[in-house]
Design goal:
single chain; mainly alpha; three-stranded antiparallel beta sheet; 5 helices; 8% strand
């Protein structure tokens, strides 16, 4: 028997969130970092939330990475993650800001200084 061809999933994404359309924590972005906390799992968690917790078992992931691994839309994973953060089962951290651009003049002065030192010796 062959697997199901790629395409639309059999279960709509809104069913994975239990019909909830908006996350309780609107600050979760695509690059927010999720990590599993050490809290014990309560009984009766929905299957989609358990799948997200299993995905986070190996380490931290961005929300968009977890969505890709679970093959769920970002918006659905955002709702699931917000619910798990509310239950203290997942820790969420703001995305890492991009590094500042280097100053090319400073690098040129450092390179000139190193060349000057090289020619002295």
């Amino acid at each position: 028997m062959t697997g199901r061809p790629t395409g639309r999933p059999l279960v709509p994404a809104y069913l994975s969130t239990g019909g909830v359309a908006r996350p309780s924590r609107p600050h979760l972005e695509r690059l927010s970092v999720l990590a599993r906390s050490d809290e014990p799992l309560p009984a009766g968690l929905p299957a989609a939330e358990l799948a997200l917790l299993d995905t986070l078992e190996g380490g931290s992931l961005a929300v968009v990475e977890a969505a890709a691994l679970l093959r769920l839309p970002f918006s659905a994973v955002r709702v699931l993650a917000a619910d798990l953060v509310d239950r203290d089962l997942v820790l969420a951290r703001a995305p890492i800001p991009p590094a500042e651009r280097f100053d090319p003049d400073l690098l040129k002065r450092v390179a000139d200084g190193l060349r000057a030192l090289k020619h002295r010796t």
